Amino acid sequence: MAAKWFLGLWMILVILGAFFYAPASLGLGQISRIIFFHIPTAWVAVLAFLMCAIYSLRYLKTRQPSDDTAASVSAELGFLFCIIATISGSIFAKATWGSYWNWDPRETSIFVLLLIYGAYFALRASVDEPERRGSLSAVYALLAFVTVPILVFVVPRIPAVQSLHPSESVVSISGEFTMDSRMLTVLLASLAGLTGVLAWVFNLRMRAARLLSTIPQDKED
Amino acid sequence: MTSSSNWGRESLAVLWKDLLSEFRTRYSLSAVLLFSVTALAVVSFSVSPYSLDPEAKAAFLWIVLFFSAMSGLSRSFVREEEARTALALRVSASADAVYGGKLLFNIVLQSAVAAIVVPLFLLLMDTRPANPALLVAAAALGTLALASSSTIIAAIVSRANAKGALFAVLAFPLSLPGLSSAIGATAEALRGNMPEAATGAAADIRVLIAYSALMIASSLLLFDYVWND
Q1: CA B181, CA B146: separation in Å to the nearest integer?
Q2: Which domain holds residue A68?
Q3: Which of A148, B43, B95, B149 is deepest in the core (most CB within 10 A)?
Q4: Rounded to an integer, what distance in angstroms lies between the CA atom of residue B12 and that of residue A84?
Q5: Contacts of B160 in chain A (CB under 8 A)
């Protein structure tokens, strides 16, 4: 209970910090404030994808229905954060590069991630029997999980795409932070806060699922 | 646990069974071949062959090959479910052997399609590949990559409800690394023997090999959960 209020307060501080504490970037101006939400949501989307793979692996080993629920809940949350990251990134791209979408390597990767999440839900929707649904979707999630790292090697080689993504604006090659320290503080706080939001909603959904599973099936109607 | 020689023999037996039933009906091969020839014809009379650069040609070729794979490769498992022979197969062969046999069958089927589509494509597009050996390698390894990623997806789809629509949806994101490397290598093969092209093509070929090996290895680990749940 206390954690919920703390998380709410934390996110309020992050939002205030993003607009009032951190300075706007010199080159980009006010639009640069979107990174305080764009980068953390993308990170959380990848984290949820990892959680989905781990729970899928656990489901195949233990066959506990709760592990299957956890995998599907993390995929749902990951999909949500993935959409937020895509939209915020697209707005950012329009403001800085002049086009909403140009198949930059990271745009390609996040598009593939969206496709995988979409395919995962399509698969879940088309299997009725819960046990079979659990194992088929777990296998798919794990296959996707081993495929995605290959994209790191493949996507930069897709022709007619030069990356415009600033890979060095946060951490330079030598490993030193090149960002303004106040911006970095807000970014890391937002990263922690949104990771907390993921954990909070995940717990909420898991508790709801547990309650639903205790209701006897014949009394539902 | 079956020993490795036993596993190989069982896989070949499954392959032989599938080839025999395919030979008797010729369902998959004729459907896939007609599909790919139709798609190729649409491509070739909608654009002039002289107006396309190698990248566009390579992309067209692999779009045709990818969707012909999508139309045919799921049959190997869907047929077992539809004919209600899956249970008999489950009893008579180990899961690994079933996967091995179906993978080999899909490789054979898709290679047959590629062996007809690629020469026909070169003919219709009036293209002389600058590096024929690389083209053959790209076609062969791309076919292997497509077959290795879609065999386990076919097994998943055969146990779900919306079989036809689901297969391409599930297979595309997983096939993308193989597909885009195959397109890259094919474009280099059509373009020519520039030194920087050779290193690019070598990287594509390496990705194709690594990707196929990874997909087959993880499929072997996971196939049992799909097949015997």
Answers
A1: 11
A2: 33-157+179-213
A3: B149
A4: 49
A5: 123, 126-127, 136
Cβ-Cβ pairs closer than 8 A, A with B, add up to: 97
Residue ranges making up the domain that contains B144: 4-227
Give domain status of residue A28, yes or no: no
Tokens at residue A93, please?
A: 């791209």
Q: Give the per-residue pLDDT at A178.
A: 58
ipTM above 0.85, yes or no: yes
Number of domains forming the structure of chain A? 1
- pLDDT single digits (tens) A6-62: 999 999 999 998 888 888 776 777 888 888 899 899 989 989 999 999 999 999 999
What's the length of chain B?
229
A124 CA: distance to closest CA in chain B (Å): 9
Q: Render pLDDT for A89-99 as a digit per residue (tens, 0 to 9).
A: 899 888 888 88
User: Distance between CA atoms of B51 and A202, rounded to whole angstroms?
Assistant: 53
- Tell me the per-residue pLDDT of B144-158, one tens digit each, with 9 for 90 and over: 999 999 999 999 999
Please, what is the angle between helix B132-158 and helix A130-154, to 10°? Answer: 160
Residue A148 CA to residue B215 CA, distance in Å, equals 12
